[in-house]
Amino acid sequence: MSNQSKFWYFEEVDLYEVLCPHKMAGAMETHTFAHYKKDEYIYFPEDASNYVYLIAGGRIKIGNYTEDGKENIKAILSQGEIFGELALVGEEKRTDFAKSMDDDTSICPMTIGQMQELMLANKQLSLKIYKLIGFRIKKLERRIESLVFKDAKSRIVDFIKDLAHEKGKKVGFETMIKNNYTHQDIAKLTGTSRQTVTTILNELKEQNLINFDRRRILIRNLDTF
Q1: What is the value of pTM for the model shown?
Q2: What local confidence, expressed as pLDDT, does residue 131 receive?
Q3: Which H, E and C letters describe the chain, residue by residue?
Q4: Which domains does the chain have, with CATH numbers?
Q5: What pLDDT was estimated at residue 142?
Q6: How far apart are CA 64 and CA 17, in angstroms?
């Protein structure tokens, strides 16, 4: 397994099950969850970076706004993943917003102190958390390079490939991805339009490179995609 694959595998681990204080003896009575409806904000840019958050249920999008008020989406995260983790490496104020995408979103907030205690007690976990932070930064850098140097089709294909490495499941020679993204979501993550995403996905389907519906994307052969 390559180093990149190892990072992708760790991204897939359900960190909520590993880290949530509610799962720990003695903490269940004092720990509470935060619940959000669709389009509610967990934090805004310039808010103090006091917490790291674990997703117990639902989806969260991370992003910011351009000067003309357009929403720029950097990531869409789901159950088992963490966000707000830059607070662990010195971020004092948020540079992005975090916003719920579902009506039944449930978040486990952890103070920086709580997370640091867990990391001090488990050096292997600490190393993996820092690797995850580094990997997400590199992933964002690759996305910026892609926006500058690649055309729309290449950006969309790269997005699907990355998603396959991150969350795909092998089914024979094919790779199946649970599809939590609308065409508009993919457009925002790839700097394209919804119409462009629809056109390119249909082209890839006609070429028998992928198949897709609202629940999944199936890549025929990831090695040759």
Answers
A1: 0.78
A2: 82
A3: CCHHHHHHHHHHCCHHHHHCHHHCCCCCCCCCCEEECCCCEEECCCCECCEEEEEEECCEEEEEECCCCCEEEEEEECCCCEECHHHHHCCCECCCEEEECCCCEEEEEEEHHHHHHHHHHCHHHHHHHHHHHHHHHHHHHHHHHHHHHCCHHHHHHHHHHHHHHHHCEEECCEEEEECCCCHHHHHHHHCCCHHHHHHHHHHHHHCCCEEECCCEEEECCHHHC
A4: 3-147 (2.60.120.10), 150-224 (1.10.10.10)
A5: 84
A6: 29
Which residues, at least 6 apart from 13, have a Cβ–Cβ distance to it below 8 Å? 80
Q: What burial letters (b/e) apply to 174-189, b meaning 16+ CB within 10 Å?
A: ebbbebbbebebbbbb
Give yes or no for a contact between 106 and 39, defined as CB atoms under 8 angstroms apart: no
Which two three-digit tokens encode residue 197? 């995403």
**pLDDT at position 19:** 56
Write down the pLDDT at residue 18: 52
Which is nearest to 96 in space by CA: 50, 136, 41, 58?
Answer: 41
Nearest C-alpha neighbor of 81 from the set 8, 169, 137: 8
**Run means of pLDDT, 10 residues per run, the chain, 225 residues:** 37 50 48 88 96 91 90 88 90 95 91 85 80 83 86 95 88 88 92 95 96 92 89
Q: What is the pLDDT of residue 28?
A: 46
